[in-house]
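Support request from a user on the community tier.

User writes: "When I paste my structure tokens into the form, the page sometimes reloads and wipes my input. The last time it worked, I copied everything first. Here is what I submitted, just in case something in the input itself triggers the reload:"
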């Protein structure tokens, strides 16, 4: 992927990347335990990838970070502020890229990106135009501004959703399955974009994903949720040689775990 053009947002940013802290966080829906005693620190500027089987609670954990869910017990902190407090969203800029994009079909690509800035009166129309055009340029979407979401491919919709998040100049960027339903080439492109944006925008990045290649190639650290608990927390290098049989079976379902050298598996 070519180097990204310089962003005026970077030179004017006053707030650093956000730090995340979960302390003994648990979540139950009735008698069903979704998350159990999750303790985790995500450092400012880190790319953290959260993996796990379907239904393991990954998206529920993500919702706790943006205040869409409140823990049954324990706490979630963003830059030292309670993630469930409405005031936190005024103090820390967070942006979420949803799995399906969640674009407004009745708005053009340009207006999808401009909506947040207009609604919150974050600059003149000329300022908004500059930010929107820059975000579209970064995501190689300059020719799509007048198009509607229905005119875009799946990969382009993903990139528009990322561009929409970028115009908020977030301190914390959250992605829910950003490479799902994409072909391998577009998945690799989105993966490269996520890595490049971390450096360009100096943003903390949390990615929920089933994509093993994404985790191994761009993550600073990876966590794996299973049976409501965080059963692995480590670097991609450690993930390549899993010591826990549950992790090995999840990541490498075709491997013969009876083989004495299964821990030496290469990707």
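"...and here is what came back when it finally went through:"
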């Amino acid at each position: 992927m070519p180097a990204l053009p310089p962003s005026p947002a970077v030179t004017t940013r006053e707030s650093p990347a956000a730090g995340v802290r979960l302390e003994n966080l648990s979540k139950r829906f009735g008698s069903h335990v979704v998350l159990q005693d999750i303790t985790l620190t995500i450092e400012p500027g880190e790319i953290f990838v959260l993996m796990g089987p379907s239904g393991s609670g990954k998206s529920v954990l993500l919702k706790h970070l943006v205040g869409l869910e409140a823990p049954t017990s324990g706490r979630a902190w963003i830059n030292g502020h309670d993630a469930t407090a409405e005031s936190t969203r005024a103090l820390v800029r967070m942006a979420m890229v949803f799995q399906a994009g969640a674009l407004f079909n009745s708005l053009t690509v340009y207006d999808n990106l401009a909506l947040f800035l207009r609604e919150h009166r974050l600059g003149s129309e000329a300022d908004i135009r500059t930010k929107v055009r820059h975000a579209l340029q970064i995501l190689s979407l300059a020719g799509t501004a007048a198009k509607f979401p229905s005119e875009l491919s799946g990969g382009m919709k993903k990139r528009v959703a990322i561009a929409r998040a970028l115009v908020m100049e977030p301190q914390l960027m959250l992605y829910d399955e950003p490479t799902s339903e994409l072909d391998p080439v577009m998945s690799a492109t989105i993966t490269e974009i996520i890595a490049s944006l971390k450096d360009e925008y100096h943003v903390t990045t949390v990615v929920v994903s089933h994509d093993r290649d994404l985790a191994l190639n761009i993550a600073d650290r990876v966590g794996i949720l299973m049976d409501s608990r965080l059963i692995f927390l480590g670097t991609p290098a450690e993930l390549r040689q899993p010591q826990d049989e549950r992790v090995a079976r999840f990541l490498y379902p075709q491997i013969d775990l009876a083989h004495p050298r299964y821990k030496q598996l290469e990707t």
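Agent notes: The reload is a front-end session timeout and is unrelated to the input. Residues 1-14 have pLDDT under 50 and may be disordered. The chain has two domains: 19-93+171-267, 102-168. Escalated to web team.
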